[in-house]
Amino acid sequence: MTLPQLDKLVAIGQLKDGDKKRGGGVRRxxxxxxxxxSGVEWLGEVPEHxxxxxxxxxxxxxxxxxxxxxxNNVLSLSYGKxxxxxxxxxxxxxxxxxxxxxIIEPGDIILxxxxxxxxxxxxxxxxxxxxxxxxxxxxCLRPSNSVDSRYLHYLLHAYDIQKIFxxxxxxVRQSMGFGxxxxxxVTIPVSDEQQAIAAFLDRxxxxxxxxxxxxxxxxxxxxxxxxxxxxxxxxxxxxxxxPMxxSGVEWLGEVPAHWEVLPLKRLVSKIVSGxxxxxxxxxxxxxxxxxxxxxxxxxxxxEANENKTVVEEDLHRVSCPVVKNxxxxxxxxxxxxxxxxxxxxxxxxxxxxPDRLWMVFFDISxxxxxxxxxxxxxxxxxxxxxxxxxxxSSMQNISQGDFxxxxxxxxxxxxQGKIVERLTKQCTQICKLITTLEFSVNLLKERRAALITAAxxxxxxxxxx
Length: 465
What we know:
This protein has helices at residues 3-12, 149-161, 178-181, 191-236, 368-374, 378-387, 400-404, 413-456; strands at residues 35-37, 45-47, 51-54, 59-61, 75-78, 81-84, 102-104, 109-111, 125-127, 132-134, 139-143, 185-188, 244-246, 254-256, 260-263, 268-273, 279-280, 290-292, 307-310, 321-322, 326-330, 332-333, 341-344, 348-352, 357-362, 389-392, 395-397, 407-410. The strands form ten sheets. The protein has a five-stranded mixed sheet with strand order 17-19-18-24-20, with no helix packed on it. Strands 4-11-8-9 form a four-stranded antiparallel sheet, with helices on one face. It is an alpha+beta fold. The protein is built from eight helices and 28 strands. Helix 1 packs antiparallel against helix 4.
């Protein structure tokens, strides 16, 4: 697919003007005729005819153990949805027996109220649509007959995105149970109105989710296109008619006949690493000294603002300031991020390396950006994956010796420069398109959250929608 074709796809997937506004679409719905004070500070006013009840009045905790492994449909809470999981795929640690899991039924509401202190980003609620089993670490609620389970789920989801759970029980906790939530105030309209609100949100969130999925697919297409362009340029060059030769390396295939196939050690002048120091998790400012986070290269580019301010007692221990025309490489990380690299275009005299990152210097015959583009290819990732080591499957490392043994095809320096120039132009264009799409996805997610919150707290009247 060509860039113009992708541009056309992006244009088709653009938001309508009315959706570009933050929270777009919510303001077009009318409010209820009359409101009353809910008596709850974070709820404010609610429709006059709505009730405010504690959660224990409209739901009960349900605990049904999977004794005897009578149920084998394994479910999981993922991005606010209850989905099936296959025990034949590696999706995390599995229990020795699924007897420790709990059985859930359609309409049950699942809440993950663990690790509240450390994780304030995950979606923590879901509504079951089928019978199955899920970890007993999650709270399972069964709504009463007077409450539509979809409505109650949307309401608790709204509380979740407003971060209400994080202040329950007299302060932030690592985890909570039903006892901590039983007095949680919930807004309860009459049964027919609950169903109308739930049906409206089912319809509108499905429409928004479809738009989000479409845009995310476009983002993936653009990323695939970018990688294809990079791989073609750094392994085959810019001239499609140039004579080729066998590289002698299985995963590299044919390369231009005038290129050299060399191990990285022939191109690197030195590799340095920093020191582990104590630091505060905030970026340095006003000349403060900082150390890079490993996240500074997660995106495949170098992000200098991903740093931590060094505490005063450890200022004397920092080493290896970040300098331009180098690559920062993650030597230890998760399997997908170990070996991630970013090109440094400027000097940063107040930012230093930690012990988990390398700074790679190159011989004068090398354009460092060319090697950086090479690290974005599957050819590089294949070699990283072949040498990864570690005692934990979630944390891997590569040695300098293995890194320096990676093979790549390298053209003359002048040609490296031309390739870098072409790739920079093309990748900048693609990145702008990706940024535009990501921004519109975020706006859609904001609109979705605002619509749910407004509907279940009575800020808008959707009964006739």
